Task: structure prediction
Amino acid sequence: MMNIIRLLVLLSSVLICQAAFANNIVSAVNKAPVVSDGTTAGHATDFVINLDTTLDPSTNGRTLLQGKTIRITLPASFQNTKDYMFGGCGPPLFGKECNTAVLLQGWPQHPVAPPPVKYAFDYEKDTNTLVFTAKVDLTPDAPLEPGIKQMHLLLFGFTNPHPGHYRLKVEAETGPAGALETGWAKIHIIPKSRPSINVTSTGSDNPTTLNTIYQSATVYAAVPLNYNFLLWNRKDKPFVGVDIADIDGNGNYLFKKDNKVVGHVTIDAPEGAVGQMLMSFGESMAAAPPTIGGPETTARWVGKFVAGSEPGRYTVTAKLNGGNEVEMFIDVTN
Result:
């Protein structure tokens, strides 16, 4: 009988956890793509909160009606130790003397714009809570303006705590008619930085920051926008001199620097597809970062995807050894 009771208690706990997870509007917290050390212990706090909506731009994100809020309560270990101001910090304060944040629509450098006009960003010190407040109705209109899917926190006055997992809470009035939705996630603070590959939507070929993560093409044709990847090594330095080397002529590549393998790229293609490839524009080179307030320099590698012989979804996965990976999606038609 005792064993049966214990089993029932265990099953109840599992069901409760599943129910809580099902109602969680936060899917993950990741290091910001514009820095190498946003979740590294002892470095400035700079991360992105992903909501539970697909980043595919054909799907609408969330709505925040005028006067409604999104509240993010940080763990007590995260504190504004430098006492920097908060808000939509413009020049000359937008930089490492300011704490700010933006609502993103699913890809880098594409906020619900312009942030200071459309929403305010404030801080409640007593509860360690960051607050977005809509100044107008923020409504989605996919695919070019799919609405709120991410929150990017650029907290230059905060210093990441000791390595470990820390829990934050999100309370968002983003449900129907402004109904409250809640969620939580764990921030993983790592002891030291790792090699990092990151997507940016800025570049000379894409001055309007269109979505490079989701693109379309026809068979045997190139996508319209180049891939611009930001690269840092494990010492937070720009990872210059990196380029791809074809392995087998079938969509598999190595990232190499000085003839040493530092990562790889794979192309997952529809069955029977041939001819898909990733073109390189040369080794990664030192470049200015895509946003103000981050590191002074980064390294940028530029490439372009060419579709193969079959229609369908192609997925390009790029990864650095010992670091993270990014995915790019291409829908190909005849």
Remarks:
- Confidence is low (pLDDT under 50) at residues 5-21.
- The two ends are 64 Å apart (CA to CA).
